[in-house]
Amino acid sequence: MSDATRQTDQDRALRPLDEAFARWAVANFTDEETEKREWVSKLARAVSYSLHLKHSCLDLNHYRDLNDPVLNALLEGISPEHVARLQSNAISVNVPGKRPLVCNAQGTHVWLHKYFAFEQDIAAQVRERARKERDLSDYERKILDWRFQGDKSREQKKAVETALTHRLAIITGGPGTGKTWTVARIIEILLKENPGGRPPRIELAAPTGKAANRMKESLDSQVNELGLPLEQLPEKARTLHSLLGIRYRSPRPRYHADNPLPLDVLIVDEASMIDLPMMHRILDALPKQARLILLGDRDQLSSVEAGSVLAELCDEASGLFDPQCSPVATISYSHRFGGDSEIGRLADAINSVSVLPDFSANSQVLWRESSIEKEWNPAWKDEAVNRFRALRDKIVDAVPAADILAHQADFQILCALRNGPAGVSGINSIISREFNEAVGKWVWGLPVMVRINDHERKLYNGDVGLVMKVSKVDGQWVADNRNGVLRACFLTGGG
């Protein structure tokens, strides 16, 4: 590849923001010779571009492992030794300040100064909150021994103990391990422990409205079993943006260090989706004595923006916490499926990056080889079309729309990509062609997904529904294929 071609490909992939940041850094912070100005320009573009790849810093020792042609072209000829020797007003060493870039003393890592400050502040705060503050009371020991009996609940018992004795508890585990069930027991003890005093102010939150809503529904289902006082429970779970008072185009949230959140306990679900800036805002807004309980699966749902905070907090190699007094509680026993089940073995293999299990004798997890030559006629097509046809067959006149929607969860196609033959656009084309329908056209029997939160209708990003012709009969929506109005229908709270 010629230098001209390499430069063209690099410019095409870089965002205008990356280029603008580099120009600003060079124009305002460097007045040295041409070579150093060029180094600063390349580093600035590379660090900004790394954020686009969801990395909070540029690692000069390992960036080649990403096999990204843009980074490879930008950083060609620049080594950690170059960065460590680079004396420039644009780069400071281990100190976030007025300079746009920060590097470590060895020159191996380079940050935007804001993200370096985020990392340092988060590390300091979680270390402080992770210290064990007290031992369990006699009442707490008694109720824990009563609630948690046997080896299968040993990890959950440890998670509750961690949440009661630390101001920070990180409860991580895969699907079906009972993280929300465990949190309900934490809430039970916190509310019943001080019957005569002021009950703790508890808030529930999650990165998305859908996750917040599901956490609240899960906790509500256990209220009667635990005998919890309804008036002391949060009325609803909120998104983190709503909780912190982050408004559109507002540079600062309503709640921060100078105006902390009015709460005693904050429980955040799906914490793996929290990025570096959001975690900084959460910790900044928390009262000093408040408890923070993070729930999530370190192997799922990574953050959209830079910084996989939950995974880093759970990584023992990070050295953040004293191993003898760690706030991280891992729940590994799944009540949804056993480790010897097909889906369990597949999940374990993917998480451990090992050889995938033999699929030949499977009855639940089936393997279909993809083929470039037959990308528009994949091996799974007939099965998928038959499943969608079976769902459409359930849209019969006078059948309640809620009953039809209940069957939609029986079959879903999930895509790892948005574009391409194996992505959302390609698979939608394949399925639509089988039904002789145009892609994107609103037709009867079409599965749809919400992409923007609609708080008025209580629909959230990721909620799945079905397009049907419906009429309202005796206050209930029913399928009406002849005279009904075409609507996108969703289940919300059973209705």
Describe the protein.
The chain contains 18 helices and 14 strands. It has 495 residues and is of the alpha/beta class. It has 3 domains: 115 residues, RecBCD complex, subunit RecD, N-terminal domain (Arc Repressor Mutant, subunit A); 201 residues, 3-Layer(aba) Sandwich (Rossmann fold), CATH 3.40.50.300; 109 residues, no CATH class. The strands form 3 sheets. It has a 6-stranded parallel beta sheet with strand order 7-6-8-9-5-10. α2 packs antiparallel against α3. 30% of the residues are buried. The N terminus is likely disordered.
Task: Offer a concise description of the structure.
This protein is α/β, with parallel strands linked by helices and 495 residues long.
Number-wise, the strands total 14
Counted up, domains total 3
In percent, how much strand structure appears in the residues? Answer: 5-15%
- Specify the CATH homologous superfamily of the largest domain: P-loop containing nucleotide triphosphate hydrolases
CATH fold group of the largest domain: Rossmann fold
Instruction: State the end-to-end CA separation.
Output: 60 Å
Name the average pLDDT. 84
Largest sheet: 6 strands, parallel
Query: Strand pairing plus helix content: what structural class?
Result: alpha/beta
What gyration radius follows from the Cα positions, in whole Å?
26 Å
Based on the coordinates given, report the CATH architecture of the largest domain. Answer: 3-Layer(aba) Sandwich
CATH class group of the largest domain: Alpha Beta
Fraction of helical residues? 25-40%
